[in-house]
Write a structure and sequence with these properties.
Elements lengths: L4 H4 L5 E3 L4 E6 L2 E8 L4 E7 L8 H14 L3 E6 L4 E7 L5 H18 L15 E6 L2 E6 H16 L4 H24 L5 H19 L4 H34 L6 H11 L3 H36 L5 E3 L1
Antiparallel strand pairs: 1-2, 2-3, 3-4, 4-6, 5-6, 7-8, 7-9
Helix pairs in contact: 5-6, 5-7, 6-7, 6-9, 7-8, 7-9
Length: 312
Amino acid sequence: MDVQIENVMPDGFRLERQLNVMHGMYNGIVVLVIPERERNQYQVQLHVKVENSLAKQQFLDYLGALRQIYSCVVYAGYNGMDTVSLSIQSEEQKDKDNLDEVISSVTAKCTQYGLHSCCTYCKSVETLNTASVDGVPVLLCQNCLTRTMSEANEQAHKKENIPLGILGAAIGVLLGAVLWVIIGQVGFIAGIAGYVIVLCGMKGYQMLGKGMSKAGVVICVFLSALVIIGAEYVSLGLIVYKELKDVSLYSVSMGDAFGMVPMLLEEPEVIGGVVKDLAVGYILAVWASFSLVRSQWKLAGQEAKTKTVVRF
């Protein structure tokens, strides 16, 4: 495609150079044209209300025959909802005539079959506006345009509160650690406990931090790893307390039992058992929570991209 876009625009169309889209109206139908220099083609889009039309099949049959009618049309299709898409091969100096002829024909068929331009989101046919949402040209009714711009504005001003997020994550992982301790008291090491710790940490971060960035995911995983060590320490302290309570002739407090844990950890047999339990616990925790962490990481990456809405 080695031509000036301004010279190939259909009659009455406007070029939004920064958005790389031409737009205009033919036969009462709004048309969007996106030049694709890499593919040497023009992508033509019509957002029309086809689904409830009695002439739907006739219109689809017409689209299916377009490639035989016009040699420049390399694709003509309908997405089953609201979008008619055409791919028109660039033929340099013939581009303007080709675009004029094909667009005129397609929009004339829309008019003939009683099809109307509609909102890309809600399918309304009232007060339509051309706009670009995250770089994608669309037609939006006034309500959808207002809502989408409001959402974009809120997202732009929405800031993650990392200190509060850390506080929420800390509270969450501590709550999740309770399950680890309970399961540990009956002699099991379960991956579900590690999963719950990570999940509670992320939920706590999101609730107080008002968002979840990739940094937030890392913080939650780090706190979860730390609290698993703490939970194992507490489990060991409770075991010592129960053992001493059963065999001691004197009253043993919980504080006394936990105070003995550091001395016990100096014993090779005890520290070896604890390390083994932690290793198994971490492996199971990673196995159980891997999908959760991966999905949150992807979502955090998507949320970091601020939605852009441009009306044109």
